[in-house]
Amino acid sequence: MGATRAFACIAALTALATLTACGHSPPTRYFSLDAVPPSAPLSTDAAHMAPVQLGAVRIPASLDRPEIVAQDAQYRLSIRENDHWGAPFAQMIRSTLAQDLLARLPPGSFVLPGAPAPPGARGIVVTVLDLRANAQGEMTFEGSWTLTAGENATAVMTQEVSLTEPMPSGDSAAIAAALSRVVGRLADRIAASLAAQR
Questions:
Q1: For the chain, domain boundaries
Q2: What is the pLDDT of residue 46?
Q3: Distance between CA 49 and CA 25 in Å, rounded?
Q4: CATH number given to 32-197
């Protein structure tokens, strides 16, 4: 009987310790991206730009998750279990890029994602090949954007983009801030190319 009671006490203490540990788990933190101001005003020559609408933003499967992902070392990614994006990652990038483009393109020329587009509106598709916060304290972006036209969304122009932004630290807030700047610079590139192409 003594052994049975001792075993029961040990089991109860183990369960209590487990519950206590669970009660002290770090809370989940949520992060967002913010629109950033244009790096330069758009040329007045672009005032009569044909309407354009942001469509899909395609991201690698390794980033298509709620947790923030960072690169701790070569070939090794760190999934931050307690640091999450506030919305699906591709959706958040698209929403932020839309805000950035709205601030950079002439009034009436940008159609928000999902909104009814006027006849003849062109489309923008962004493809992210690689996007990471690396161990060297940098946010790097490799990808492209494509301008489409017509009912079949035929590609009329594709431009590759490579961007790097420094990060003051490797914490998740710094990652979100650096990524916001990267998305803003991508919007700068797109707006400038559209203004030149019209």
A1: 32-197
A2: 57
A3: 53
A4: 3.40.50.10610
